[in-house]
Amino acid sequence: MKIYKVCGQSHWQKAQEDGVFTGVAIDLSDGFIHFSAADQLAETLEKHFTGQTDLVLLTIDAEAIAKDLKWEPSRGGALFPHLYADLPLNAITNEHQLQSDDAGKFILPESL
Q1: Which residue in 54, 88, 89, 110 has the fewest CB atoms around it within 10 Å?
Q2: Are 110 and 93 in contact, with CB atoms under 8 Å apart?
């Protein structure tokens, strides 16, 4: 199963330099790294990232981090994946530079 993390390009570059992704400000504040399942991604982008540029969509192999991954209720009671550890880079299977259309809606990869 694949899950997804949206972050700024600068966060992704730092993770590559450090060899591990420790999260963005909200992750560090909450004590876990926030992810979305494929069917949650569009709403996550709209709710938390509208108007932002220079974003990267990371695809993560959920099985590679299963021992520290918990599915917990969040928006509307839906279960969201939360990682209670740093994200090892070898669990990231793909990266995609996010772009918006003329209406400001994010264009997701066709593979979703």
Answers
A1: 110
A2: no
- Going by the DSSP 8-state scheme, the letter that residue 36 receives in this structure is B
Label each residue of 79-110 as H, E or C: EEEEECCCEEHHHEEEEEECEECCCCCEECCC
Residue 80: Cβ-neighbour burial (10 angstroms; 0-12, 13-18, 19+): middle
The token pair that represents 87 in the structure block: 């994200």
Could you tell me the pLDDT band of residue 112, with boundaries at 50, 70 and 90? Answer: confident
Is the pLDDT confidence value at 110 over 90? no
Q: How far apart, in Å, are the Cα atoms of 57 and each of 12, 40, 73, 77? A: 10, 13, 22, 24
Give the count of domains, the chain: 1
For the domain that residue 24 is a member of, what is the CATH number? Answer: 3.20.170.20
- Record the pTM: 0.94
Reported as a pLDDT band with limits 50, 70 and 90, residue 94 is very high
- What is the Cα–Cα distance from 63 to 109, expressed in whole angstroms? 21
